[in-house]
């Protein structure tokens, strides 16, 4: 009697890639996205229905190519595949709409479920808003002190020891506030040990959320946030 070898069904995918600014061409080029997607596909039986590319800001929701990709996903019961979540969109509303109505896989963190993707999207938007606010507050504070941003004459005065101490204290306070703000989200991702600290770090890196030091996340970075006493920043 002849036996037929069991074959794992191939998942149908529609690939979507997005490129935006000149800066992103270096870090999120189509070639970089291709490598991330290929790495995922190498470990998963697949059938690619189509690939769509477009060059638009992640903040824009009018995306002709994305619309076509989603239409194909719906027509063929396929999964939308992107390299990273921010390649889909930087807008929480857009991500939420896609996650609720379509199957979505981010190649850099394929095990992230719908709830996780929504949470990561919210965290990324919160981080961008926080950065913008810090920059705005800094400019306004400089103007209030009689300084004009960009005016080199502002930096001619030598810094005193008092200036240096104040600067260090300000940076320490900002870091502690940032840790306190990050802790609830990091705890949700960690979920009492259901995910390892390394997995949480990978998720945060995948979405581009910076640490308090503006660097990459590691397991020990996650641990410091989890162990941080928020009362210190109060």
Automatic annotation (TrEMBL):
Which domain of life does this protein belong to?
Bacteria
- Look up keyword Metal-binding and say if it applies: no
Q: Which InterPro entries match?
A: Resolv_N, Resolvase-like_N_sf, SSR_resolvase
Which ranges carry the Resolvase/invertase-type recombinase catalytic domain? Answer: 12-146
Keywords from UniProt, A to Z, are: DNA recombination, DNA-binding
In this chain, composition skew of type Basic residues spans 146-158
Enumerate the Gene3D superfamilies for this protein. Answer: Resolvase, N-terminal catalytic domain
Compositional bias segments (type: Polar residues):
170-184
Record's compositionally biased regions (Basic and acidic residues): 159-168
**GO MF annotation terms:** DNA binding; DNA strand exchange activity
Q: Name one Pfam family in it.
A: Resolvase
Among its keywords, does the record have S-adenosyl-L-methionine?
A: no
- Which residues lie within the region annotated Disordered? 146-184
Record's protein name: Recombinase family protein
Q: Which organism is it from?
A: Ferrimonas lipolytica
């Amino acid at each position: 009697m002849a036996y037929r070898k069991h074959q794992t069904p191939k998942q149908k995918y529609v690939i979507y890639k997005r490129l935006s600014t000149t800066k992103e061409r270096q870090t999120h080029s189509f070639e970089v996205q291709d490598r991330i997607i290929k790495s995922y596909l190498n470990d998963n039986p697949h059938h690619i229905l189509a690939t769509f590319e477009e060059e638009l800001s992640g903040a824009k929701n009018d995306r002709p190519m994305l619309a076509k990709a989603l239409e194909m996903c719906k027509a063929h019961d396929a999964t939308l595949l992107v390299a990273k979540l921010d390649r889909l969109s930087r807008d929480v509303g857009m991500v939420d709409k896609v996650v609720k109505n379509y199957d979505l896989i981010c190649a850099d963190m394929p095990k992230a479920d719908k709830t996780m993707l929504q949470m990561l999207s919210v965290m990324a938007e919160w981080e961008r808003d926080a950065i913008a606010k810090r920059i705005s507050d800094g400019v306004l504070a400089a103007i209030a002190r009689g300084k004009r941003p960009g005016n080199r004459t502002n930096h001619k005065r030598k810094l005193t020891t008092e200036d240096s101490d104040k600067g260090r204290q300000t940076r320490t306070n900002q870091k502690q506030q940032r840790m306190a703000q990050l802790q609830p989200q990091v705890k949700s991702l960690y979920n009492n040990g259901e995910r390892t600290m390394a997995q949480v770090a990978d998720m945060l890196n995948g979405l581009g959320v910076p640490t308090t030091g503006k660097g990459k996340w590691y397991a020990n970075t996650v641990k410091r946030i989890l162990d941080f006493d928020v009362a210190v920043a109060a």
